[in-house]
Amino acid sequence: MTTGMDKHGRHAIIDIGSNSIRLVVFGGDPRAPLVLYDDKVSAALGRGVVASGRLDKRSVALALKTLARFAALLRLVPLDRVHVVATAAVRDAENGAQFLTQVRALGLPAELLSGEDEARASAWGVIETHPGAVGFAADLGGGSLELARIGDDAVHECASFKLGVMPVASIRAAGRGLLRKALRDML
């Protein structure tokens, strides 16, 4: 007997975001995957990037400890594919490349997504779960806001803005009217 799990295999994704690091192991039909394991740790990598332009040491230490645990868990499970992505905090940090080298040393094949790639990935997630969707897909994270136009079961124009929760809070804290100016400048 063949099950949907056998047909489609097992996959894992690790999302290294500005606020959290998440591991999801799933199988089955890609349009309705069966989540087998889901774990998330708030490492707040983006906090240091907003304050100093660098990933701070405490956030990096927590992130690497979490990723080492995730790597150990993944070695215990037969998987067809492991996909590891890093987003805005790592992309924008002066020491982001150094951090990615440390992640890869754990045996995790980390890929740094551009802002447009991040927008595209979010948009495909919307299309996979909502076939026929038309409009804009928006992904608001800790470090950035991604927008993608979707329609005809395809992703069209994509854009990324440094308007995540952490940068917006920092801009607003600097004074009245500065967020409006930053928005005008970015658009």
Give an overview of the whole structure.
By secondary structure, the chain is α/β, with parallel strands linked by helices. The protein contains 8 helices and 8 strands. It has helices at residues 4-8, 45-52, 57-75, 88-92, 96-105, 115-129, 165-173, 178-186; strands spanning 10-16, 20-27, 34-42, 81-86, 110-112, 135-140, 145-151, 154-161. The strands form 2 sheets. Strands 3-2-1-4-5 form a 5-stranded mixed β-sheet. The chain has a 3-stranded antiparallel β-sheet with strand order 6-7-8, with helices on one face. The longest helix has 19 residues, at 57-75. The termini are far apart. Mean pLDDT is 92; it is low at 1-6.
